[in-house]
């Protein structure tokens, strides 16, 4: 990397990657701690409502047990937590751009790293959010015909179209692995002055492909179980 001493404060590469790794964990731990304190401060009515919600959640789990198994529960947990994890990255972008505005318009010292750090961050968020979006039904779908079908018909269409999804997911994994290997072997860096490593971004592409494939497998397993269940109910 070239000498950056003339560019004012420049965020070290190791700090950028390290902070992205630990910052969401800190925020998630703080959120749990805050929630625990909030529960302690609740009045009796609020605690009663909390207990009622827990009972309803347990009942929901019992119902879901008909079409879920240990694999789908683990994958769904990973998909959900990974989405929460990367969501906290957005806070960094807000801080980065605030710092850039202050340095540029108050001190007349624009940075060389804020824009690049932010668009890499958003790119990795996009790559990693696929599993979370699939779990919560947030992907865009063409539903002109889909919405006209009964519930079992919609599930059946999801099962049928899943083969196209898995073709895409497998192709994405293979391509991402090739990109990552090539990038890591040459220690690829961005062409901007900051010159941060690019192979971690390619690694996130690979990880995101694996996450969305696992989320798709979980959904397919649950869809097949539900399709069979609704078929039995219709015959009964």
TrEMBL record:
Residues 94-224 form the Tripartite ATP-independent periplasmic transporters DctQ component domain. It is a multi-pass membrane protein. One of its GO terms (cellular component) is plasma membrane. GO terms for molecular function: transmembrane transporter activity. The keyword Manganese does not apply. Coiled coil: none annotated. The chain crosses the membrane at residues 14-30, 83-107, 119-138, 159-179, 199-221. Keywords: Cell inner membrane, Cell membrane, Membrane, Transmembrane, Transmembrane helix, Transport. It is found in: Cell inner membrane. Its main location: membrane. It comes from the Bacteria. PANTHER family: 2,3-DIKETO-L-GULONATE TRAP TRANSPORTER SMALL PERMEASE PROTEIN YIAM (PTHR35011), SLL1102 PROTEIN (PTHR35011:SF4). Belongs to the TRAP transporter small permease family. The complex comprises the extracytoplasmic solute receptor protein and the two transmembrane proteins. Part of the tripartite ATP-independent periplasmic (TRAP) transport system. This is TRAP transporter small permease protein.
